[in-house]
Amino acid sequence: MRDEQRLPTRTPESRAFAERVQVAMGLCARLNALPFDDLEGRRVLLGEIFGGPVPDSLSILPPFHSDYGLGATFGERVFINQGCYFLDLGGITLGDRVMIGPGVTLSTAGHPVELRERYDFITHAPITIEDDVWIGAGATVTPGVTIGRGSVVGAGSVVARDVPPMSVVTGTSVVERKRIGSAG
């Protein structure tokens, strides 16, 4: 993962992260329980989830889920459809006029691949989605990825590497990258 950072588990920093997760998930539950037409209530809760004012032109349709909230920033005229998940510890930056389809996951966090380290750290790296990007329904974007200006990510795609500007990408695949150490 490019630009990977590590948050050690069982530390004051990881406990603070876990506490913020509880706050963000509670705020998201409140957001998702609002009547759909309560736009002002939605705006207030989005400000609490993301730790400050969000652009007036931001549109997020519930249900919406964020595990941290404090790592996301938004450009103007961003549209996020229903059922999206933002795991934003590593930082999510959305440029102007980004459109995100229903059921999209933007995940900036994970765990080390090596078994002996897997439970000792949370890994994270930023996701950057530049201006005028459209991400189709059910796509997943993984930590450390930049999606270049004007690009389109097809529905159901898994994006695990950078996308050049003005590109259309589609597909999923499982490719064995390496063998990790033994389980014992």
Structure description:
With 184 residues, the chain is an alpha/beta fold. It has 2 helices and 18 strands. Helix 1 (12-33) runs antiparallel to helix 2 (39-49). The model has no long low-confidence stretch (mean pLDDT 93). Pfam families: Hexapep, Hexapep_2. InterPro entries: Hexapep, Hexapep_transf_CS, Hexapeptide_acetyltransf, Trimer_LpxA-like_sf. One of its GO terms (molecular function) is transferase activity.
Write the layout of secondary structure elements.
Layout: E1 5-8, H1 12-33, H2 39-49, E2 59-60, E3 64-66, E4 72-74, E5 79-80, E6 84-87, E7 92-94, E8 99-100, E9 105-107, E10 109-110, E11 121-124, E12 127-129, E13 134-135, E14 140-141, E15 146-147, E16 152-153, E17 158-159, E18 168-169
Parallel strand pairs: 2-5, 3-6, 4-7, 5-8, 6-9, 7-12, 8-13, 9-14, 12-15, 13-16, 14-17, 16-18
Antiparallel strand pairs: 1-11, 10-11
Helix pairs in contact: 1-2
Low-pLDDT residue spans: none
Shape: globular
Overall structural class, as computed from helix and strand content, comes to alpha/beta
Q: Using DSSP, what is the number of strands?
A: 18
Q: What number is the mean pLDDT?
A: 93
- Tally of DSSP helical segments: 2
Which strand-content bin applies to the residues?
25-35%
Q: What's the gyration radius in Å? A: 17 Å
N-end to C-end Cα span: 25 Å
Family: Belongs to the transferase hexapeptide repeat family.
Organism: Nocardioides aromaticivorans
Keywords: Repeat, Transferase
Protein name: Transferase
